[in-house]
Amino acid sequence: MEVLLAVLPVATLVLVLALLHRPLGDYMARIFTSTKDARIERVVYRLIGVDPRAEQSWGAYARGVIVFSVIGVLALYLLQRTQQLLPGALGLPAVPEGLAFNTAISFVTNTNWQSYSPELTMGYTVQLAGLAVQNFLSAAVGIAVAIALVRGLAARRSGTIGNVWVDVFRATFRLLLPLSLLAAVVLLAGGVIQNLAGFTEVGTIAGGTQNLPGGPVASQEAIKLLGTNGGGFFNANSAHPFENPTPWTNLFEIVLMLAIPFSLPRTFGRMVGDTKQGTAILAVMATLFAVSMTLLGILESAGAGTAPALAGGAMEGKETRFGILGSTLFGTTSTLTSTGAVNSMHDSYTSLGGMLPMINMMLGEIAPGGVGSGLYGMLVLAVIAVFIAGLLVGRTPEYLGKKIGPREMTLASLYILVTPTLVLAGTALSFAIPPLRENVEAVSIWNPGLHGLSEVLYAFTSASNNNGSAFAGLTANTDWLNAALGVAMALGRFVPIVIVLALAGSFAAQDAVPATSGTLPTHRPLFVGLLLGVTVLVTALTYFPVLALGPLAEGLN
């Protein structure tokens, strides 16, 4: 019976994703290849002065992404700083400068890192007009960038990769908005709240009173998960019964996180004219996901120690209504995507179990990754894998008919160096500079020693990879961490995006090279294995030393 209860949710998840993969992937391909604009789209294009048929170079596309995102940061920062003047503020004051800066960058970069208790910090106007809007727009930007890279691979001697305004608008209004409306209705049916009731005073069993916050939770929960955002309406996030009431809503929320990322490889295959290429990318993503999910489930179920043995497992920090496997499946999903939502406290996992979510993010969140970002991250690794294969056989490497030359490899190499640099530099600076170390150790870290290092490492890993989850033992609402993590989120989001768009432009300018007998087939098991090896080795060689100082040392101690 226990085995059945463990297998049934996973089998259901696989079945639902398999049923969604083809229709959703094909639908997204039609969205971004259609030459017809809906009436509302034509109205919006006229209002903002955009010619939807005008294609952009990679530089113009990148500038559009940056300008759009900077405006989003400024608007969200202003909303927070003037919260006390806005309707629906619930009597809450303005958000402090450092926290407002961090939060504005967090939501615009699809990170949704929260150094605060949302229900006690943000009023309804900031939640709806600020945070929820950015949940849509940041997800749409990620999808748009991935589509631009796919267009670059599919193009033939073109200097353009699409139109950023058209791509972002279509991703929002043709994909994210209708799916979010449907998901919100399902969550409402499952018991997730949706109201503007403010704080309600209720009596407790002990005879006292308690204020329960209400709010538009179902609508925000839907896009939080579908757009792999992760920022919760409540501080407890998806562990809160108002956000995630039952085991079946828990499984539904996992499906929401994985639906678009696992369907985008199909979109990729359709747009390049070879669905087998998308299947190969999907195979790599699915393999990494399955391995990570299995390992985390085993480590948490084994739960070495007296307390876990007496409890029947490592139940510290986990909800009894989800159990260990419901928690580890959710944790694996949220850290292998860029969602960062939690239904259990990762800080309470066993030492080696807590390392798995960290490694998931260190992989670059590519299995399947965030909406858009997972696909373009995996395609960059595919370029590197093809280059390595070309070196082994002494041939000029090619991917989908495009030569991988010095420019392409320089861009791909820079891409994989960005986040490790931010993670390791941020962690090192927090401990290497005496005033910062003293502040971090005295104010931020609740658990000194090896676990304290893990908490800081997790924070910079989460921020730099735009995940947003955290080890709960770290107080991040300090001047240093608000600023440092905010910078890590911004650079971790936009530097890779610019590199990806430059790579897309480089591919788009090339003509297709005919395949020969020496061309490496990139849709067969051999390439899938090679890409898996490259993904794991790049991560292992980069992060193993710092993991040995933190979670590995703690787990083996």
Task: Spell out the key features of this protein.
mainly alpha, globular, two-stranded antiparallel ribbon, 557 residues
General description of the model:
The structure is a single chain. This protein is an all-alpha fold. It has helices at residues 2-33, 39-48, 58-81, 97-108, 118-121, 124-154, 164-189, 217-226, 247-272, 275-302, 306-311, 323-336, 351-362, 373-393, 406-432, 434-444, 450-464, 479-508, 525-549, 551-556, and strands at residues 199-203, 209-213, 398-399, 402-403. The longest helix is centred in the N-terminal third of the chain and has 32 residues, at 2-33.
- Helix and strand string, N-terminal first? HHHHHHHEEHHHHHHHEEHHHHHH
Sheet having the most strands: 2 strands, antiparallel
Uncertain spans: none
The portion of residues forming beta strands comes to under 5%
Q: What would you call the shape?
A: globular
Q: Count of helical segments?
A: 20
Range of helix content: 55-70%
Mean of residue pLDDT values: 93
Number of strands: 4
Roughly how many Å is the radius of gyration?
23 Å
Instruction: Kindly report the spatial arrangement of strands forming the biggest sheet.
Output: 1-2
